Amino acid sequence: QVHLVESGGGLVQDGGSLRLSCAASGRTFSGYAMGWFREAPGKEREFVAAITYTGGRTYYSDSVKGRFAISRDNAKNTMYLQMNSLKPEDTAVYYCARARALARVPDLQGTGGYDYWGQGTQVTVSS
Q1: 18-24 and 58-60 beta bridge pairing
Q2: pLDDT tens sequence across 66-94
Q3: Quick check: 80 and 71 in contact, CB under 8 A?
Q4: CB atoms within 10 A of CB 21
């Protein structure tokens, strides 16, 4: 069983920054791609960013590209999401997830490409 725990959410003003962390249990972190998703009230969960298991490649949704940065530290079993220039429309619960084994790049941009999820952390951006 894989256990993922997000932290770092909170309330921030328009234009502010936050850094989310996702701590993973066990030895099943470094060999898998990881991703961040978010879910706003009344909306479906949407892809935010993904990173390959080495950290060598990253992928972003168009809505966050240039503002958010995903990274990981395999030695610490932790993934991060640095969020800059936050906007009210970024308000959502943010979830980290571990990709399924052998997930391909297109799979990383949909919820079906992931098999373990954290409980989420709330990010609220005030205008």
Answers
A1: unpaired
A2: 999 999 999 999 999 999 999 999 999 99
A3: yes
A4: 17
Q: Is the pLDDT of residue 27 over 70?
A: no
Task: Yes or no: say if 60 and 79 are a contact pair by the CB < 8 Å rule.
Answer: no
Neighbours of 100 (CB within 10 A): 16
Provide the H-helix boundaries in 18-106: none
Q: Is the dihedral of CA 65, 33, 43, 18 positive or negative?
A: negative
Give the CA distances from residue 40 to residues 1, 44, 54, 95, 122, in Å, rounded to whole numbers and listed in that order.
27, 7, 30, 11, 10
How does pLDDT run across 92-121, given as a tens digit for each residue? 999 999 999 988 989 999 999 999 999 999
Give me 1's structure tokens: 């069983």
| pLDDT tens, position by position, 31-69 | 899 999 999 999 999 999 999 999 999 999 999 999 999
